[in-house]
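Hey, resending since the last one bounced:
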Amino acid sequence: MRRPMIAGNWKMNKTPAETVALIQELKKIHPRTNVEIVVCPMTVSLFAASAQIKGSELHLGAQNVHFEDKGAFTGEANCASLKELGVEYVILGHSERRQYFAETDETVNKKVLKVLENGMKPIICVGESLEQKQTGITNEVVCLQTKAALCGVSTAQITDCVIAYEPVWAIGTGMTATAADANRTIAAIRGAIKDMFGYVAENVRILYGGSMNDKNANELMSQPEIDGGLIGGASLVAEKFDKVVNYSDR
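The C-alpha cells again:
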C-alpha cells in the first residue's frame, strides 16, 4: 500500500514569523488515516519552520534547490544547506519554475539526481498546458516529462521519488481536472515509470496538484491511482488544510 501524502506548497507566502504562527496551528492537525503531511515554506522561512516542526508529525520540504554543490550561483541554495535545516522533501520542476525561471527537463533531472544523492526526496512536478490539453497530447507530455526527470535514477532510488501531476491550466485558477480524468492521467504517468523501472512503479506515490482543496479532496482521493495532493492556496489556511488532510471524514 502506498502511504498517502498531503504536501503544502506555500509558494511566495508567509514571512518567518507568519510561518511559525501557521505551523503552530498545523501541529494541532491529527490525521485520522495514515497520511504523511509535508509543509514547504519559502527558503527564507525554512529555519523558522524547522525549529517549529521538530517533534511533530509534520515533515519539512523546500520549494527548490540548485543542482551544484557550491559556486557562483547568486540567490540559490544547495542541497547541503537544506539538509542541514532538516529538509526531507524538495519540490522540483513546478510549472511556475519552468515558466518564470527557465527550468527545463534537463535542469529538473540534474536537481532530482542531486537531491537523491544528498539523501532527500524529490517531489517532481509534471503537467500539460491548456493548449496541449486541447490538442489531446496530455499523456505524451506528462510521460515525457516524467521519463526525462527520472533519467539516471536507480531502481533502488525510485521509491524515494514522488511525482506530482499538476495540469498547468488548473494551477491557481480554481479549475480542476475531473477526478476520473486526473486518475487516468496519473495512471499513464505510472505506466511511464513502469516502462523504466518495472513493477516497482506500483510503489511510487503520485499526487494530484491542480487546485486540490478542502471541497474536492475526498472525491480526488477516492481514485485508486491518486496518492495525495500538492496543495497551494488551501495549505495557507490551517482549517482548510486540516480538511484536506482528513479528506476521508468529509
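The beta strands are 5-9, 36-40, 58-62, 89-92, 121-126, 162-165, 205-208, 228-231.

Sorry for the duplicate.
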